[in-house]
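User: What would this chain look like folded?
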Amino acid sequence: MGQIRKHYTPEFKLEALRLAETSGKPDSELERDLGLSKGCLGHWRQARQRNGKNAFPGKGHLTEADERLRQLERENAILRQEREILKKAIGVISPKQP
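Assistant: Here's the prediction, encoded as structure tokens.
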């Protein structure tokens, strides 16, 4: 069976990165000490560099862009449903041509 993925809080990630910056230990040693997968600190560091304070929004807390995308996808789904309903209504109302 597959491995269960561990989930870490944003606070834990930021604290681990702070520890990596101040301890002087190599990432591989810190990852082993903290029980992290190989390369975790590097991925978290890159995410923080790309997204700054929004790097780890946490479960259920989306960035503004992701929230906007979710809203637009929801709106798109509603519009598609409305279009399908209208197509069916036109088919019922309009007489069929032989």
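The mean pLDDT is 85. If you want, I can go into more detail on any region.
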